[in-house]
Design goal:
signal; about 45% helix; three-stranded parallel β-sheet; elongated; about 180 residues; Solute-binding_3/MltF_N; Solute-binding protein family 3/N-terminal domain-containing protein
Length: about 180
């Protein structure tokens, strides 16, 4: 049907006046632009996105936190209680996304493998932006600088919506603007 109408229009094209042809071209361009813009807004609604859906799984669910003990950022008592400035930040983030926390303690090397294998959602423990584990995890933007070291947290590679949400929370909590 569309092809038939287009074919009829093209056969009459030489007989149409210059203004009519100009209006038809403008209408066609406007229609194409409308389709293009509507598809762009649909695409941008899903950016940033998580390849494995970490943010949507964690929201109203469980946030699995890998903790490498590194006072004063993270400490673990003999009774298994977690404390420290990063522990407090992660507790606040979990509340922000309405998640329960499951803690997993270990050395950075083990936690780097766990986050690479999607076994933990975030790694804390005094990580800096020069962490040797950046090939295993995405590092947040620095949320603090202490003695020239830029402090970061680790999130799964490709989980951009989760990373952005954590960074937004850290910025709001620490009084920064994004």
């Amino acid at each position: 049907m569309l092809f038939s109408a287009l074919s009829s229009l093209l056969s009459c094209w030489p007989m149409l006046g210059r203004m009519t042809r100009l209006l038809l071209v403008k209408a066609a361009l406007l229609g194409a632009a409308t389709v293009l813009l509507s598809s762009c807004s649909t695409i941008s609604a899903n950016i940033p996105a998580d390849s494995a859906g970490t943010l949507s799984r964690v929201e109203d669910g469980t946030l699995v936190v890998g903790v490498s003990e590194h006072p004063p950022w993270t400490e673990v008592s003999d009774q298994g209680e977690y404390s420290g400035s990063e522990v407090d930040l992660i507790r606040g983030f979990a509340e922000h996304v309405n998640a329960e926390i499951e803690w997993q303690q270990g050395p950075e090397s083990v936690l780097a493998e766990r986050i690479k294998n999607s076994e933990v959602d975030v790694v804390i423990g005094g990580l800096t932006d020069s962490s040797p584990w950046s090939s295993h995890m995405a590092l947040t933007r620095p949320y603090a600088e202490i003695d020239g070291e830029k402090m970061v947290m680790g999130t799964p590679l490709g989980e951009n919506a989760f990373l952005v949400e954590l960074e937004r929370y850290l910025a709001e909590e620490l009084g920064e603007t994004q």
